[in-house]
Amino acid sequence: MKQILTWVFVSLIAATNVMAQDQVRMAVTTSFHNSGLADVLVPEIKKELDLEVQLLVVGTGQALRLGRAGDVDAILVHSRAAEETFVAEGYGPYRREIMFNDFVLIGPVQDSAGIQGAQTAADALARIQTAKASFVSRGDDSGTHKKEQNLWEKASLDPSDFGGWYRAVGAGRGAALNTASGLDAYIMSDRASWLNFGNQGSLALLFSGDPVLFNQYAFLPVSVERHPHVKADLVAKLEGWLTSQSAQVLIDGYTINGETLFTFNAN
Amino acid sequence: MVELFPLSLDGATTSRRGKRLVGPVDLKISGGRTTAVIGPNGAGKTSLLRLMHGTARLNAGRIDWACPTDLARHHQAFVFQRPIMLRRSVEDNLIYPLVLRGARKKETKTAAKTWAQRVGLDQLMQRSATVLSGGEQQKLAIARALIIEPALVFLDEPTASLDGRSVREIEAILSDARARGTQLILSTHDMGQARRIADDVVFLLAGRVHETGPASEFFDRPETAEARAFLKGDIVE
């Protein structure tokens, strides 16, 4: 995880090179940035609002820490429990849902654990555990890892009891998927990351569609009471745009290989 | 240090909303060389750097490093034209990448001090990074990239809009990094800088590599009419 976080931090403190009138900083997750959607939304925000959105691309946990420290004006992440804690602690006035995609379970085409026949995500994980089939966990502080932990819990299983078949690699999405590909192992991924992954090898998408795999992205302004330097007026403009019809058209219309990645659900 | 090179691009293309920004690009970058990516505005210099670094999506073609891509990314960094400073002190900005790597506090402090001295910011360690001048912020951004001791640093117009003194200081920092074994790939509008720093030049035009080769040959004997016109200062598209 630390390797990847360092790479994304050092690398992805991204801004456009054209100076806009106003600038706002937003911490976003690697999964959102790597989906390519940021490259579509940010230039459009610049064009429509003359607002430059500077992205700090990190894992969900780190994004929330940047918000707590007042390093950013807003956050766009996908881990509801952590977001609610952030708000409850007074670091953000509220969370506002913007869009969702879904998590999927990936595994070897042969599907030795038989998860294609599972009725629920919990059932699919239980089958993997029963078969003791190799499973790669992100094992980091990402939204994806938090979600995976939550699903094991729903299946009444505790990864700390698992044997060597369960590998927590402590790595970001690309490295974890590469590990799974190399090991022919099962892994959970967000759909966008899977579609963008270039080294799928003999892995395939084996299970999706359970409502518990819903992956909600939310926008959180950073509290101006905690951090008076936060640009609350610009954050409000940004939030207004992210919940607008302009954003809806771009988010709903964003596809990779013909597949829609995100669904707009702001209200 | 891990071997990243040669870096090979084979038909590499990146697009946004159906518009091709760069590509298809065929290019090979060897180890131990400093490469300057040059070309007119809109040629795709920044996009090419981001594509190589993996922060722009590869829509077609291949990009291959001498080692696995994840390992290559771990050993590289990117410095943007207008760096974003964390709203913290100079020292805390320097420390942050090391903290993410799990370095111990004492190590981070020592490294921050060393790098602040190297880039001439040691007297400003406790100052808020957001109030530094443009040149100081760029030096801090470069130090923040170099503190993780990367094998490669991409720099997007590292001295654009800076005064002559800052340009000289930053070029000295880059030379020092180069001497320490960090390879550089930079985009620049400054042909003087490309001549001073680069071993090789990649001349981009309309998102494609129009001409490439050793800097001395490119500047002395450009092969194409477009490259000659560009070096002469004509508008080339």
Write structural notes for this entry:
The complex is a heterodimer of chains A (267) and B (237). Helices cover 39% and strands 24% of the residues of chain A. Chain A is globular and about 55 Å long. Chain A is α/β, with parallel strands linked by helices. Chain A has helices spanning 2-11, 30-34, 37-49, 60-68, 80-88, 121-131, 143-154, 173-183, 191-196, 232-242, 245-252; strands spanning 13-14, 22-29, 51-58, 74-77, 96-108, 135-137, 166-168, 186-190, 203-207, 214-221, 255-256, 259-260, 263-264. Chain A has two domains: 2-100 and 216-264, Periplasmic binding protein-like II (D-Maltodextrin-Binding Protein, domain 2, 3-Layer(aba) Sandwich), CATH 3.40.190; 102-213, D-Maltodextrin-Binding Protein, domain 2. Chain B has 237 residues and is of the alpha/beta class. Chain B is 38% helix and 24% strand. Chain B is built from nine helices and nine strands. Chain B has helices at 45-53, 69-74, 90-100, 105-118, 134-146, 164-179, 191-197, 215-220, 225-232; strands at residues 7-16, 19-29, 35-38, 60-64, 76-79, 152-156, 183-187, 200-205, 208-214. In chain B, the strands form two sheets. Chain B has a six-stranded mixed β-sheet, with helices on both faces. In chain B, strands 2-1-4 form a three-stranded antiparallel β-sheet. The longest helix of chain B has 16 residues, at 164-179. The N and C termini of chain B lie far apart (40 Å). The model of chain B has no long low-confidence stretch (mean pLDDT 92). The chains are: A alpha/beta (267), B alpha/beta (237). At the A-B interface, α1, β1, α3 and α8 of A face α2, β5 and α3 of B.
